[in-house]
Predict the 3D structure of the following.
Amino acid sequence: MGSLVYFNSASLDGYIAGPDGRWDWATPDAEVHTFVNELLAPARLHLYGRKVYEVMKVWDDLPLDDLPPAEREFALQWRDIDKVVYSSTLAAVSTRRTELRSAFDPAAVREMVDAAPGPVAIGGGLLASAAARAGVLDEVHVVLAPAVVGGGTRFLDEGLRLDLELIAQRRFANGFVYCGYRVV
């Protein structure tokens, strides 16, 4: 039986993108990127909303020879996982191993997660918040960037309440901090 795991980077004030939509302040260095690769490697299925999918699909075609080692490893991992994209506005998806669904169905997600041999990753604050509200989110993982951005796209929806148990933590040389939590 798998678990549904939300991972994202965030500013100290809880945003995954600033008011201008940028997240360059959260760009991982090689140490953090390698850690994220290891964290996400067991997840053979990723769930995305449209916006996150549109950001992530670049990994499908990037020339591997041009990438630093940690990014090359991530690109190879991303190309080798199954992906489900939830969108009512996309007509089709362009990446390999990707299925498009028009709506997020918590019961279907729970079935996928329960059938998975390991964790299932969910990307994006809106989709993770929908999973949390539906009671199907099992873990929350965040890499906090040493930045306060003052607004933008939230890590999780405002007003969402979750009780969490700390299961892992790590500090990085660049000032980033990782925390992993189980939803209780």
